[in-house]
């Protein structure tokens, strides 16, 4: 049995957002850009990637996340607006952003980041930008301009709303068929 597990903390999204994100992917898929599109069933909004950690540490991580999120009340989130990192002209990660709830997610991330730093996890030095990754561009200049233009055209794309009521500590197993995510702990916001 493996003694470590690839782990991250995330917010799950609802069926409406998954469906609308899938519709946008279909609109973008026919560009000649070489993009590995995310299966909508696997979509989530990552708050913190932890990497390979000992399985024995999972309870301690869940406890720290629970203590960090206990004072945070559930909040609405709207997933809206397509874009790319670093830019739509040089896309590497294609995403949908957040409108309502964006600052709440930044605050939630900060609380989790601080709690996990106390357990020895590295902190990010750049500002957290809440986003839902929908694709990763492979190194190929073909079709990048077309993809960028389509992303510009989808800058106001609305994927839907959901209520953020919990964060989830997930394990991630990678194989040829794609990633498999399994919840290791569900932590309700507000400590309930």
What does this entry look like structurally?
By secondary structure, the protein is an alpha+beta fold. It has a single domain (4-191), classed as Cyclic phosphodiesterase (Cyclic Phosphodiesterase, Chain: A, Alpha-Beta Complex), CATH 3.90.1140. The chain has four helices and nine strands; from the N terminus they run βαββαββαβαβββ. The chain has helices spanning 15-29, 58-69, 102-117, 144-153; strands at 4-12, 35-37, 44-54, 75-86, 91-98, 131-137, 158-164, 166-175, 178-188. The strands form two sheets. The protein has a five-stranded antiparallel beta sheet with strand order 2-6-5-4-7, with helices on one face. The longest helix is centred in the middle third of the chain and has 16 residues, at 102-117. The radius of gyration is 17 Å and the shape is globular. The mean pLDDT is 92.
Per-chain topology:
Blueprint: E1 4-12, H1 15-29, E2 35-37, E3 44-54, H2 58-69, E4 75-86, E5 91-98, H3 102-117, E6 131-137, H4 144-153, E7 158-164, E8 166-175, E9 178-188
Antiparallel strand pairs: 1-3, 1-8, 2-6, 4-5, 4-7, 5-6, 8-9
Helix pairs in contact: 2-3
Summarize the structure.
This protein has helices at 15-29, 58-69, 102-117, 144-153; strands at 4-12, 35-37, 44-54, 75-86, 91-98, 131-137, 158-164, 166-175, 178-188. The protein is of the alpha+beta class and 192 residues long.
